[in-house]
UniProtKB/TrEMBL annotation:
HAMAP family: Ribosomal_uL4_B. The keyword RNA-binding applies. Forms part of the polypeptide exit tunnel. One of the primary rRNA binding proteins, this protein initially binds near the 5'-end of the 23S rRNA. It is important during the early stages of 50S assembly. It makes multiple contacts with different domains of the 23S rRNA in the assembled 50S subunit and ribosome. Belongs to the universal ribosomal protein uL4 family. GO terms for cellular component: ribosome. This is Large ribosomal subunit protein uL4. Residues 44-77 are annotated as: Disordered. The lineage of its organism: Bacteria, Pseudomonadati, Bacteroidota, Bacteroidia, Bacteroidales. It comes from the Bacteria. The gene is rplD.
Amino acid sequence: MEINVLNINGQETGRKVELNEAIFGIEPNDHVLYLDVKQYLANQRQGTHKSKERSEISGSTRKLGRQKGGGGARRGDINSPVLVGGGRVFGPKPRDYRFKLNKKVKVLARKSALSYKAQENAIVVVEDFSFEAPKTKEFVNIAKNLKVDGKKMLFVLPETDKNVYLSARNLQRAEVMLASGLNAYKVLNADVLVMTENSLKTIDGILNK
């Protein structure tokens, strides 16, 4: 699949890049995508939730009433889960939600996500660019020139560029990522991928081993 390379003014440069069929042209695997997205979201969880159980609440341990014959549920002390203000039964405890996925599964998930975007014609290739200083206005102008403004944009760069990152940081529907850190969730969550020529080479080197 060939895509025209644009400059930051949205004009065609006359060059074309060939998207690697082994990465952008495979049959997407939905189950692998589900696993990878699930892992990504699970890794974002703090897992610090906690509620007090019966033994952790301060209160008298005196038995409030008879075991039988009261007409209601049996209850012991004032910390009983049956009563308002009592402990919680099987409440949440701090835990780690992270789980492991094999490398091949994660690679297949990224390939599947990129293939979906290629099928949707939601990939824009632009020649490499940089800013001399952080300028949000310049970044907005590039988005308008590329006709991706108003969409949820993911700009993929080959290496860290602080000025580009800072220029996009204040925009709600724009995100800048390194090609080496690309994951299935970020790709699927974006409406359009804006990739530089060198970031495509980086992705080829990582996913086409």
